[in-house]
Amino acid sequence: MTVPTSAAAGLDATAIRADFPVLAERVHERPLVYLDNAATSQKPRAVIDALQTYYETYNANIHRGLHALSERATAEYEDARSRVARFINAAHSHEVIFTRGTTEAINLVARGWGDESVGEGDEILLTEMEHHSNLVPWQMLAKRRGASLRYIPMDIEGRIDLEAYARMFGPRTRLVAVTHMSNVLGTITPAAELIQIAHQHDVPVLLDAAQSIPHLPVDVQALDADFVAFSGHKMLGPTGIGVLYGREALLDAMEPLFGGGSMIRVVELHQSTWTVLPYKLEGGTPNIAGAIGLGAAVDYLQTVGMPAVTSHEHELTEYALSLLSDLDGVRLFGPRDATDRGGVISFYVGDVHPHDVGTLLDADGIAVRAGHHCAQPLMRKLGVAATARASLYLYNTAAEVDCLADGIARAKAFFE
Ligand code: C6P
């Protein structure tokens, strides 16, 4: 296996690393090796600066004041929305609804769309590898409305059986809600095919893109997507900001989740009417700084180029899979072939508890996650209570993958 340099990918990881102040930190007197990007990514200076500039020079509430600061804050907030819309190629910027993150975006659909469109006896199709955020809101909706959840057959590596999926549609199928990339297995689901088949039955699809949009070029129009949910903090942006993309007609028909300021047209004592998109679905003062920071994150990713990000991570993933599969007693989860997967690598080291693996790696300055990764049904399917998980991003290097492999070998030896 040749050690990747990513020169072919057109990405200079060394130059990129210089943009991320935290990557220069030392942890337990070792250089930080940050491999917990599926949990949250680090932030480039451009995003940190955008937040600081907002708070230092034009902090104000938006869509309210007539004063200069409020006008600037409003313009920057709306500009961030337009940049996000361009990033995912939405047809209209009002199809981008700012939320707190993926979880809120999915709950918004489950309430605002689901309560209107799903009734007794109806069915929602999911997979067994969903994050709890794309599972629990549908369980809650099913309970409220007397509907049921059905699970699309998939193998242990998260590969969906498309023929079996196509056969699941019937007159009661109301929605398909699937992950675009598993946060445990790294598997990329065939979103275009899943959507095309669902549309043959007039069924909309919600894509949980929390793990895909930070790492892959995603074009919502090319996918013909209906709803797409993602989080800013996993794509170089701040925490507390995320997006629900929705097709205009679907968002228009939705009821708001939050009643309050900004989302109304006329308020009377006993009733109110709603204003237009996107404001109808953004009640209350939004996370202004967060949206502006997300706009800066999207600019950063676009400057690097999403195809370059994807191929850099692909090279590193191939390299990591080859190194780790050579280690005796290490069990890898997810597809062994890096073609249809992203850089989320879950593993088990002999009989060592994943939390112990995580703790020993941390002592070497290597940050990974260990646990059920908010995917308990998937853990049951895999026959484990937890896994250790390393997850890559554009600033990671082959040398860091070497550190991970060495660290795992040391952790294994420690328990022998
Ligand atoms: N997964 C992980 O370490 P929020 O918390 O709303 O930003 O994102 C929720 C979420 C939804 N779907 C998928 C596929 C996800 O991976 C996540 C977040 C993190 O895997 C934290 S549990």
Structure notes:
By secondary structure, the chain is α/β, with parallel strands linked by helices. It has helices at residues 13-17, 45-58, 68-87, 102-112, 114-117, 136-145, 162-166, 191-200, 220-223, 248-252, 288-304, 306-325, 354-363, 376-382, 398-414; strands at 26-27, 30-31, 33-34, 96-99, 123-126, 148-151, 173-179, 205-208, 227-231, 242-246, 264-267, 272-274, 330-332, 344-349, 366-367, 369-371, 387-391. Strands 4-10-9-8-7-5-6 form a seven-stranded mixed beta sheet, with helices on both faces. Strands 13-14-17-16 form a four-stranded antiparallel beta sheet, covered by helices on one side. Strand 7, helix 8 (191-200) and strand 8 (205-208) form a beta-alpha-beta unit. Helix 2 (45-58) packs antiparallel against helix 11 (288-304) and helix 4 (102-112) runs parallel beside helix 6 (136-145). The chain is globular, with a radius of gyration of 22 Å. The two termini are 28 Å apart. The mean pLDDT is 96. The chain binds ligand C6P.
